[in-house]
Amino acid sequence: MLMRLDLTQIKRWIPKGSRVLDLGCGDGEFLAELEHELEVSGTGLEIDLHNLSEAVAKGLSVVQQDMDAGLPNFPDNSFDTVVMAHALQVLHRPHRVLEHMVRIGGEAIVTFPNFGHWRCRLYLGLRGRMPVSKVMPYSWYDTPNIHFCTVKDFEHLCDSLDIELIAKDTVGGGSSQILARLWPNAFAVTAIYRLRRRGG
User: Fold this and answer.
1) Domains observed in the chain
2) Of 16, 88, 93, 133, whose CB count within 10 A is highest?
3) H helical segments located in the chain
4) For each of the chain's 200 residues, which pLDDT tens digit applies?
5) Which domain of life is it from (predicted)?
6) pTM metric for this prediction
C-alpha cells in the first residue's frame, strides 16, 4: 500500500533513534513504520478503541486519551518530535493542542487538509455547497472536520501562539505540485509544517 505523501515528508524530518509521540495514531501503521525504519522510540495516542486495539496488537505503546482534554500527563520536552497528521481540523481546541505539542516535544510536525485550495473555493462558489472530494469525502452534516483551516489561517495562528515555523512543505496533487509550493494557500491540497516553540 502506498504511503500518503504527507507521511513520507514527515519521515524525512524525524531523526533516526529519536523519541516520537504520534497524536491520533489510528491503527498504528505509521508509528510501526517509524519504529521499524528509523528505530524511533515511539508512543501513540488514540481515542478510538478499535484503532487502539489494532495498534497494541502491533506491539506499540499506545495511550488512550482525548487530545482536546489536554495533554498534561506528558512533561515538557519528553519527546524529540510530536506528530499530528490530518487531525488538526477535527479538534475542538486546536490552538491548545498546538501549544502542548511544542511544550512536550523539541519539535512538532503537523499536517492538515488546506480548505483554501482552489477546488474547494470553486466548488463552493459554483455549487453553493460545501465541497466533497477524495481528500474531504464527507458531507457537511456527517464530517468529523469541525475547524476548516487554510494555510494562511494556520500560519497566523502559529504566530499568535509564539510558535516558530522551521520548515513547510505541501502536497499539490498531480501536476500542481510546483504551484502548491509557490502559492500554497490556493494550490496545496495538504499542508505540512515543522514547528517549535519560539526561542526554544
Assistant:
1) 5-197 (3.40.50.150)
2) 88
3) 5-12, 29-38, 49-57, 94-104, 118-127, 151-160, 177-182, 184-187
4) 334 677 888 999 999 999 999 999 999 999 999 999 999 999 999 999 999 999 999 999 999 999 988 798 899 999 999 999 989 988 999 999 999 999 999 999 999 988 776 677 776 777 777 777 776 677 767 767 667 888 899 999 999 999 999 999 887 766 566 766 766 667 778 889 999 999 86
5) Bacteria
6) 0.85
